[in-house]
Amino acid sequence: MDAKTPPTATLTLAQRYHFDAQGFVLLEGVLTPDEVTRMKTALYRLRDDPEREQQRVYTRRRGSHFTLFGNLVEYDPALLQYAVHPRLVPLVEEVVGGAVRLEETEAILNRRNPDVTNAQLHTQGPHPTGFHTGARCTWGGYYENHRFHSLFVKTLAYLTDVGPDDGGTTLIPGSHRMTWPQAEMINAAREDPRLIHQVEASAGSVLLFPETLVHSSTEIRSDRERAILVSGYTPPMLREWMGNEVSPEFIARQPEALRPLLSGSDQWNWKRRY
Ligand SMILES: O=C(O)CCC(=O)C(=O)O
Predict the structure, then answer these.
(1) For strand 153-158 and strand 170-171, is the pairing parallel, antiparallel, or unpaired?
(2) Cα 109 from chain centroid (whole Å)
(3) Which domains are assigned to the chain?
(4) For residue 110, which atom of ligand 1 is closest to its CA?
């Protein structure tokens, strides 16, 4: 689904259908060029900052080509702005099914893996690096009023253009609502790579998906670096991902309307909608 996202707070019927049927929807042009620039500037400043851990940011590396930074909101206002984005949070609430809390914030900067040869990269089909889910549909998904909802939903923003060789997210459409063991779905996709979709997107586009969807980062074939921001959301009675605790002092300094989103303070007083 490559439809332009209207500046409204709900998914169009077509976008909602795509989300329910395929397990994702690509929202084009959600972030303005100015927002993309500010978020990228913040991310590269964070990458180059040897003291980022003092602001609670964690770093995980896979070789020299893949770096993941986590727990970003306290580091820079532009990174906070992405996590609480007024055009995205209502869409997340729609697919979660009610009010949400922030569960995690991450960024990935990755390049081509120097250990993977050209011959390996140019075999047929997409090249996921590690298919996974963060929840299973048997306990992390539900239906209400004929719509699919998930208790764990992510928004993934592309801060760089991502063409066919640039490592767009790979995913298995429809897997978000399958009760099959995850390993069997991955084996099916290995058997026939046509079951896999690889996202192509322009900078500023956002992939909205439930964590019940089997998905993965993807090997990069080009010489370009990819930059993404990822925010995870759950209903407020669930916990943040380990290491993504936002400090009470930081939350106290934010506008009152944002505090439940950052802290999960509403807990079991869940404002269910949709
Ligand atoms: O790198 C990507 O495109 C996917 C990231 C991912 O798997 C995740 O955020 O759970």
Answers:
(1) unpaired
(2) 14
(3) 13-263 (2.60.120.620)
(4) 1
